[in-house]
Amino acid sequence: MQQPLTASLAKNKAALRTMFGETIDLYTKEIRLFGFPCCICLFEGLSSIERLWIMMLDILSRPPESQPPASPQALFDFVLYRTAIPLEANTVEDLDGVRRQITAGACVILVDGVSKALVISSQSMQFRSVSEPSGEGNIRGSREGFIELLRVNISLVRRLVRSGNLTVETLTVGRRTLTEAALLYDRERVSGRLLDTVRGRLQRASLPFVFDSGYLAGFVQKSRFSFFQSVGYTERPDTAAAKLCEGKLILLVNGSPFAMILPYFFTENFQSMDDYAEKAYFATLIRLFRYASFLLAVLLPGVFVSVANFTPELLPPQLMYKVASAEQATPLPLFMEALLVNFLLEIIREAGLRLPRPIGHAVSLVAALIIGDAAVSAGLLGTPLVIVSALTALCTFVVPNLYEPVIVLRILFILAGGILGPVGVAVLFFCMVLGMCEMNAFGIPYMAPAATQAKAFLRDGLLRSGWQTLAKADFTVGDLQQKVPEQEGNP
Fold it and tell me: Which of 116, 212, 245, 433 is the most exposed place for a label (fewest CB within 10 A)?
């Protein structure tokens, strides 16, 4: 239950100290305005004391045009309505409101004898400047990326989508951290059912703390276990703006530079903003390369192990002899070697990712010298398998959004190919495709628009049509949602 403010300044200060304890960054300063006791409350580092005093001294040092306030309520109204101090339009009437304002960087003024508080915009937070995103490089287009401050991220999207239909809803997530989040959508293009579904799931999300938008993914999707996700992430404001124009929702969380895209389809993992700045035929070719890279990254090691162990006659004679001689020279079975190489590749990746950048560059060099060369020379690994593993690792980096499922599926295909042979690879591939087709992203198939047989798949899914064709097609995800009714328990 919210505790309302009282008319006693001493009681309000005591209640604030009880709420925040003996924290040293809570700044409370008692002052007198026109003879009436007041108190300024703010958090150092979130609000600028210098800016606050400049604003107040400049205004309140001037004599009033008429009679000075004769009561605390008259002082409250005078400061709120008759001064040029940048006050918020809404006043605060309870302690929880005071907590929300001062933790957001504002300053709150309590007046003795008034059970409300004034709010001054004096935010002065330190944050990282807007820079190029680290994980979504592009040749053309914007170089701006989201940062950790929520209000700045909203402004980056607002600057690109200047339509009056862009709507921003704020909510609080995390019981202990009380993290501020924002849900962005185009109210003319978004589906009402999609909006109500996402909004309801966010309100029911129960987490003790939230520091990234990914924390909410499990509560928003509400789907059965799958290696793939029906939500996506981006660091680019232009990508988020493009998704808004398609009728999707964008979820931003304070403290995270990653925006969540709702819903997200399988084909979107193979698209990039550069596709729309290049010629259609070249963008289509690059997109087909990405699909091929995904299949190679998932299937190639398992197929190689399966063919080498169970059907070596399918290999050319020269390659078959090299694979056989390499396998005889190594102490482990072929599928165990494949698992070992993938295990080592993941260790190298984690080491390079977690170490400081100057040291991280040396990790790949050490790994290439010791694992790539010395392990083959010592007879621990076969040369053909090392080449296959290196090729699959390169293919994995072509589609970075699918890195996690690719790694797990690759290991499963190696086990299936090494134990069950071609039959195991075929059965596992069938199960993977069937599971992807069964996934439902907020009432829309995860494989949309291919699964819904929509023209959008050929227009901007597997291929990429020219702008003359794309400009005529007014596509939104709501068009796909109407074709497939949402199933209860499998949204």
Answer: 433
Residue 455: per-residue pLDDT: 66
* 168 DSSP β-pair partners: 184
**Spatial distance between the Cα atoms of 336 and 332, rounded to a whole number of angstroms:** 6
According to the model, what pLDDT value does residue 453 have?
Answer: 56
pLDDT in tens, 116-159: 998 988 877 777 778 888 777 777 778 888 988 888 899 999 99
| Burial class (CB within 10 angstroms; exposed 0-12, middle 13-18, buried 19+) of 315 | middle
What is the Cβ-side half-sphere exposure of residue 396, based on CA atoms within 13 angstroms? 23
The pTM for the full model equals 0.83
Distance in angstroms (rounded) separating the CA atoms of residues 328 and 318: 16
Question: How many Å apart are CA 368 and CA 370, to the nearest integer?
Answer: 6
Q: What is the CA radius of gyration of the chain?
A: 30
User: Which tens digits make up the pLDDT trace of 340-392?
Assistant: 888 888 888 887 777 776 666 666 666 666 667 777 777 777 778 888 888 99
Could you read off the pLDDT of 104-119 as tens digits, one per residue? 888 899 999 989 998 9
Q: List phi, psi (to 5°) of 249.
A: -110, 150
Domains of the chain, by residue range, sit at 9-120, 150-264, 280-438
Query: What is the widest separation between alpha-carbon atoms in the chain?
Result: 104
What is the sign, positive or negative, of the torsion defined by CA atoms of 211, 217, 222, 228? negative
Alpha helices in 62-132 (DSSP H): 72-81, 95-103
Q: Do 105 and 123 form a contact (C-beta atoms < 8 A)?
A: yes
Task: Write down the residue that tokens 């291929």 correspond to.
Answer: 463
Helix, coil or strand: residue 42: strand
Q: Which two tokens stand for residue 109?
A: 């003024």
- What local confidence, expressed as pLDDT, does residue 362 receive? 65
Both structure tokens of 281: 């035929």
* Burial class, 203, CB count within 10 angstroms (exposed 0-12 / middle 13-18 / buried 19+): exposed
β-pair partners for 170: 182
Q: Please tell me whether residue 28 adopts helix, strand or coil conformation.
A: strand
Contact in structure between 315 and 305 (CB atoms under 8 Å): no
**What's 140's DSSP letter?**
S
Chain centroid offset of residue 269 CA = 14
> Residue 180, class by beta-carbon neighbours within 10 Å (0-12 exposed, 13-18 middle, 19+ buried)?
buried
Is the pLDDT assigned to residue 488 strictly greater than 50? no
DSSP-assigned letter for residue 402: G
